Automatic annotation (TrEMBL):
Residues 10-142 form the Photolyase/cryptochrome alpha/beta domain. InterPro entries: Cry_DASH, Crypto/Photolyase_FAD-like_sf, Crypto/Photolyase_N_sf, Cryptochr/Photolyase_FAD-bd, Cryptochrome/DNA_photolyase_1, DNA_photolyase_N, Rossmann-like_a/b/a_fold. Belongs to the DNA photolyase class-1 family. This is Cryptochrome DASH.
Length: 428
């Protein structure tokens, strides 16, 4: 392989992870401005498809298809810059170090992520290549840690004090425009084998991956249907496309910048209306932000049975009840409907997620982590912070120390499915 340093041209590498877009990419813009050639990379880790200790893979078919569509969309946009996306398969740290050495990369760019594994990957690369210059940015959060009214190690473990301090002191950062130009890749750079990628393309999901689709959905929900104006009254729906924003899948994969979402929300409030519903969407984005930073604070405890409360109770062993829950064959018809919807589409309403989590923990007496791991496998909008944080919260070992949160499913069904239409739709 040609030694690119001999040409006198500097080479940078940007590692796309949970930020599959070109909008609001400050680290990419800075990398493009200080290097002569740029390699743009996404890594597919084979371990995503291998069952873990909970018997679940890290990524099921629904999110696989969404990611594949997002990569295709990103590559299509990059063609306008005379660039292309290199998608490699293998253990990410090894793949990145091979590319860095092979193409004499001197600058690595990436989006910061508070996840335990994501931070560990960056640390390993820095340890192995100490002379490597890194450029990073907080491109998937509303705020940077430096501006928060507390240090991450001292942030509140409860949402309410977190929210109140944020709302009192901070306004969300504005997103930045996409790069004006990106230098070309090295001429000898290998090309992506798109047909050979180990991603499934046969999901029945209604979601289309990619920044283009995410922006289209945002514009539709805010400015065409103006569904946001009634969000607070519709958000507890169980079935359909219009009862909620559906932004979660694009936010989780970084196809939409959360800063861009909030900036468009403020535009709607100025141009159309500001009401309880528009505030409530921002309120829920603050929940996302809360879990985003809380996982950074607690590290490995995010995944332990005792959670943030360090409960010493022994974890129950998985049994047939777990498999019945996963397959939607429990004794509760509404739980079954929710789980069948999840398995078929990769999506479940927020109300349904609370029902099935409560049922698994309180009625079936199962280890909550098996539920969190199954959601990680099945959900198209899986986000490590929100998923594991919400499961801990409902299990009584997370951010709220008041104990288990148990739902009366029959009463809930009477409130939110009074005509029994949702249950009948997914009766099987």
């Amino acid at each position: 392989m040609k030694n690119t340093q001999s040409t006198g041209l500097s080479t940078g590498l940007y590692w796309f992870r949970h930020d599959l877009r070109l909008d609001d990419q400050p680290a990419l813009a800075r990398l493009a401005a200080c290097t002569d050639r740029v390699i743009l990379v996404y890594c597919i880790d084979p371990h995503w498809f291998i069952p873990d200790a909970f018997g679940c893979s890290r990524m099921g078919i629904h999110r696989q298809q969404f990611i594949y569509e997002s990569l295709i969309d990103l590559n299509r946009q990059l063609e306008g810059y005379h660039q292309n996306l290199l998608v490699v398969v293998g253990e990410p740290v090894s793949q990145l170090m091979t590319l860095i050495q092979q193409y004499d990369v001197t600058v690595l760019g990436f989006g910061e992520h508070p996840g335990f594994e994501e931070r560990d990957q960056i640390d390993k690369i820095k340890q192995h290549i100490p002379d490597l210059t890194t450029i990073s940015a907080h491109n998937n959060s509303l705020f940077e840690p430096e501006v928060l009214p507390f240090s991450i190690s001292e942030m509140p473990d409860k949402f309410s004090p977190f929210r109140k301090k944020i709302e009192k002191h901070l306004n969300p950062l504005k997103s930045i425009a996409r790069p004006v130009a990106i230098p070309p890749p090295p001429a000898e750079l290998i090309q992506t084998d798109w047909q050979g990628l180990p991603l499934h393309h046969g999901s029945a999901s209604s979601f289309n991956g990619g920044e283009t689709a995410g922006r289209k959905q945002l514009h539709h929900y805010f400015f065409e249907s103006q569904g946001i104006a009634d969000y607070k009254s519709t958000r507890n729906g169980l079935e359909g496309w219009h009862y909620s924003s559906k932004f979660s899948a694009w936010l989780a994969s970084g196809c939409l910048s959360v800063k861009y979402v909030v900036s468009e929300l403020h535009k709607f409030e100025k141009q159309v209306t500001a009401n309880e519903s528009t505030y409530w969407l921002y309120f829920e984005l603050l929940w996302r932000e809360f879990f985003w930073w809380l996982q950074r604070k607690h590290g490995r405890d995010w995944f332990t049975y005792g959670g943030l409360q360090h409960s010493s109770t022994a974890a129950p062993k998985a049994g047939d009840a777990l498999h019945n829950w996963q397959n939607g064959t429990t004794a509760n018809a509404h739980i079954n409907a929710c789980m069948r919807q999840l398995n078929a589409t990769g999506y479940m309403s927020n109300r349904g997620r609370q029902w099935v989590a409560s049922y698994l923990i309180n009625e079936l007496r199962q280890d909550w982590r098996y539920g969190a791991a199954y959601f990680e496998q099945q959900l198209i909008d899986y986000d490590v912070g929100a998923n594991w944080g919400n499961w801990q919260y409902l299990a009584g070992v997370g951010s709220d120390p008041r104990g288990l949160r148990q739902f009366n499913i029959a009463r809930q069904a009477a409130m939110y499915d009074p005509q029994d239409s949702f249950r009948k739709l997914w009766a099987g």
